[in-house]
Amino acid sequence: EVQLVESGGGLVQAGGSLRLSCAASGFTFDDYPIGWFRQAPGKEREGVSSIIISAGTTYYADSVKGRFTISSDISKNTVYLQMNSLKPEDTAVYYCARHYYSDYVPRWARNPVDPWDYDYWGQGTQVTVSS
Length: 131
Prior knowledge:
The protein is mostly beta strands. Strands 2, 4, 5, 6, 9, 10 and 11 form a seven-stranded mixed beta sheet that branches. A four-stranded antiparallel beta sheet has the order 1-3-8-7, with no helix packed on it. It contains one helix and eleven strands.
């Protein structure tokens, strides 16, 4: 059974940092890209970052570029999202998800964070940034 479990969310002041974790199980970890998404109340889900684990190739949305870093630890089947210089507008529920397609290269190249290309999702972890 494929499972993704996020952790690491919490309450932090603006300018602070958090590290989110996404523990994966039930599939060959480095066969699929993993993405991070977020959704704030009243807003659409936003793709934040994604990583092709086998290649170490990463993508960041413009809204987080230079502040967030995605990484993976194959020995722990875990993807991390290090979030620095947090802003109140980063407040949201953060989800990790597994890319649907084993032949992901053309789709990932076109849009690394198209939510329709991700099939399994975690339960989410709340990140709240106070001003």
